[in-house]
Automatic annotation (TrEMBL):
GO terms for cellular component: cytosol; membrane. It comes from the Eukaryota. InterPro entries: GLTP_sf, Glycolipid_transfer_prot_dom. This is Glycolipid transfer protein domain-containing protein. One of its GO terms (molecular function) is ceramide 1-phosphate binding. Residues 41-182 form the Glycolipid transfer protein domain.
Amino acid sequence: MEMRREEMEKGKYELRIAMEELSLPCPGNEEDQQQRQKRSSTMDFLCVSKHLIHVLDEIGPTLLVLRQDIQQNVQRLHDVLARDPSKYASLAAIVTEEVEEGTSKKANSCTRAILWLSRSINFSKHLLEGLLNNHDQSNLEEIVEKAYVATLKPWHGWIASAAYRVAQKLIPDREIFIALLMGNCQEFKDFAGDVKVLLSIVQPLLEEANAILVKHNLDKLKST
């Protein structure tokens, strides 16, 4: 049974796995309601971020700098959650504590980790939406550029911007990129359907992160 399960998991592509892990139980019986209440926005936020790293791994060295930044921020957030899963179950709890301590704007703060992870997730969201909305468009570089300008560019300093420009030259062909994202998925329409579901789940997480950052005037922080 365990071997069968492992084989089934291998046949899934990264976005499908993320979607299944993040899918909320349907409202109904008491057990579903209890499961919903136990969910942690911090854990879900980490789940999205970790799967984003795996997706970037599939692409190769193209966005290595972005991948490393995501990994460091994931580790920072994971460490604080591990200290007290109950206390730091929500993103708001983490940011609020650092604001009260006066550490939220420090370079190694969890608040900055949440901020940059949300921007990276938003970049990926725009990129996936671009792929779906421009199914017949072969120029992946243009789709990536639009996503970058809309999400990350306003907050990047010249070093980060220069690193992106180098990475942009290594972007694979659109067909190769989609094939890497789809894995063993045979039909693009199935892949597109999964992406839409995943994005609908991710959106509330982005809204929650942005709301707490805006509340404390931390949403405009740029690269240090």
